[in-house]
Amino acid sequence: MAAPDATLRALAETVVPGPPHDGTFGAAEIEAERFIAYYLESVIPGLAEGVATILDGMAVEVREGAAFTDLSLDERAGVLKKLSEHEVQDLRELGDLLLALSLASVYGEWSGLDSNGDLSRMPLGWELTGWPGPAEGYPSLLRKKGS
Amino acid sequence: MVRVNMPDVVVVGCGGGGAVIAKELAEAGLGVVALEAGPWHDPQRDFTGLEWDMLNPIDAVFRWGPADRTKPPWPRRRDGIPLLISTAGVGGNTLHFGANCPRGYPGPMELDWPISYAEMVPYYEKVEATLPIVIPEIASPKDQLFIRGCEKAGIEHTSSADVTHAGWRMQPNAILPVAEQAPELRYPSTDGCTQCGQCIVGCRSPDNSPLERTAKRSTNVSYAPLAVRTGRCEIRTGCFATRVLTEETRDGLRARGVRYRDLDGRVFEQDARVVVLAGGAIETPRLWLSSELPATGPVGRYMTTHWFEYVSAEFEAGVDMFMGQTAMARADFPGYGFVESQGLGPLTWAFVSFLGRSWDAGGGGPWTSKGRLIGSALKRKMESYRKTLMLVASVDDDPDYFNGVSLADGLADENNPAPLVRYHANDSSISRREWLVDKAAEILLGAGAIPETLHRADAAPSTVHMHGTMRMGAHPQTSVVDDACEAHLVKRLFVGDTSPFPNGIGGPNPTLTAQALATRTATKIFERYF
């Protein structure tokens, strides 16, 4: 896996972990880095690479010589917390964006979309939450005929 | 398609307020052009019910950006208010609102408004009949729990639309009556609300319905079609107003039209006898300032929001918050704001509940957890989605001179300098919020929530509700528009959205009040100039 992909996967896995850190599937199992990289690039071209550089730079502050991917989940969480509380507003906002994209990669519909962008299977987040997906309506909550 | 080449009135923005003014003036016999920056969606074609596709701020159907979703959103700069929620498109923010349409609280409106509450009532009634506003008779499971919690907490039931005392009531919603059970959930067999729970994600209920029978009464399916049906209103989509055009007269400065840019970047000027700004509480002052209109007085100042807080708790049995209209009951607390049950899809629920300001601050008081959750703690919460009831507290806000909209240095889109939106809550709003959050905990526990599961989001301020940046009043030094919503310093220039609100109307949802005020403003425009 290319460096930014591995770093973005480590990021997503920190927010929504899967095995062996957690008993159910998480962001790594759906390759959430692809979703995150797509949106980072659409915000600013080159941002995916930039995020990997920033996270690796902050990882060194946690442990000398370490990359973000080398850190434990707790250590990575500490990095994300530090980023979203950074004194520079743009970095704080970037921290918030990374959390939001990680969350959305799993709990939005993306993992259920096929290459045409059509929903063709149950997204992971819907399985994890039990949400049946958008419905046309709920007949049990409609008025009885003539009432 | 209606063409109006020489309109009497040009309206900037065809959202919750602009569409109302367009319809009222066109029905009165005037020629109207409404300029709308976004598209006019076909709900049957465009609304997918998928949360990310519909609601994300980068390339969703409902976003603040060009109709071409491959282009970046229009940028904004923030100070103290991370989430600026706006939607470009006919319907504006009513496209994604929950359709809750209560009146403002009479007390705060009597205090700061130059119009008495009694004078507003007939305008409220007209909008309530036109949309229409319907009080549901059937509560969804989440709202039944909420009602039980209110009763256990000793909150009395009320059915008055004019709220002067605390009480819970069924929610006045801009949603067609709940449909009758029918062999198929499809128009015309089913006509009315199907309780699908998609109010915020984009209503297309019932399936196959014609535009004007769409259940949720965003202005794209209600006022805008009524305006066009007169034959005297043209809605031009993809048209971004970039400058208010003025001329000096013996009586002072007056508006004479609008310059705008279409999707292809072509620039046009539209003359009219009256100009109405209705782009919302961020875009209206932004356009004023970009047009270099007189900046004396509080243009862009005194913005109020209703700083939301979101609280959740688990129950032993299923709640299924996604079933039914987004909010079918509410508890009003004049002096503080209101609390209601709210049903969201899992992603939207996660965003509002677990991306707050603090990192799991451990709660305090009745709260087991508070703020951001990630990792396995987040996953366990998400697994409880179907057993969770979420309440939202909407907080009354006092106007503060320093909260509002100015032009950002060094940031612009293809239209104008970007807005800088500043909001920092004052002490009274903070203490009201804490009072409401305590009340929400009482309601959750009264409803039977598992005490160890109470979570509060510690949500950052946002512009779900926003008002007050072009405040209404008697004096040009302390207000921008007069009691007819005409600018003190630029004649024939009116404001038709939430920005004239002198205060936060007590905390309830602002849309109905904006629409009632817009209805009144339309009559004032007609009386003054036609």
Description:
The complex is a heterodimer of chains A (about 150) and B (about 525). Chain A has about 150 residues and is mainly α. Helix content of chain A is about 55%, strand content about 0%. Chain A has one domain. In chain A, helix 1 (about 5-15) packs across helix 3, helix 2 packs across helix 5 and helix 3 (about 45-60) crosses helix 4 (about 75-85). Chain B has one domain: FAD/NAD(P)-binding domain (3-Layer(bba) Sandwich), CATH 3.50.50. Chain B has helices spanning about 20-25, 45, 50-55, 105-110, 115-130, 140-150, 225-230, 280-290, 345-355, 375-385, 425-445, 510-530, and strands at about 10, 30-35, 75-80, 165-170, 235, 240-250, 250-260, 265-270, 275, 305, 310-315, 330-335, 335-340, 370, 390-395, 405-410, 415-420, 455, 465, 495. The two termini of chain B are about 25 Å apart. At the A-B interface, helix 2, helix 4, helix 5 and helix 6 of A face helix 3, helix 9 and helix 10 of B.
Fold topology:
The complex is a heterodimer of chains A (147) and B (530).
Chain A: H1 3-15, H2 32-43, H3 47-62, H4 73-84, H5 89-107, H6 124-129
Helix pairs in contact in A: 1-2, 1-3, 1-4, 1-5, 2-5, 3-4, 4-5
Chain B: E1 9-12, H1 18-27, E2 32-36, H2 43-46, H3 51-55, E3 77-79, H4 106-112, H5 117-130, H6 141-152, E4 167-170, H7 223-229, E5 233-237, E6 240-249, E7 252-261, E8 267-271, E9 274-277, H8 280-290, E10 304-305, E11 309-314, E12 329-333, E13 337-341, H9 346-354, E14 369-370, H10 375-383, E15 388-395, E16 404-412, E17 417-422, H11 427-446, E18 455-456, E19 466-467, E20 493-495, H12 511-529
Parallel strand pairs in B: 1-2, 1-9, 2-5, 3-17, 9-20, 14-18
Antiparallel strand pairs in B: 4-12, 6-7, 7-8, 10-19, 11-15, 11-18, 12-13, 13-15, 16-17
Helix pairs in contact in B: 1-7, 1-12, 5-12, 6-11
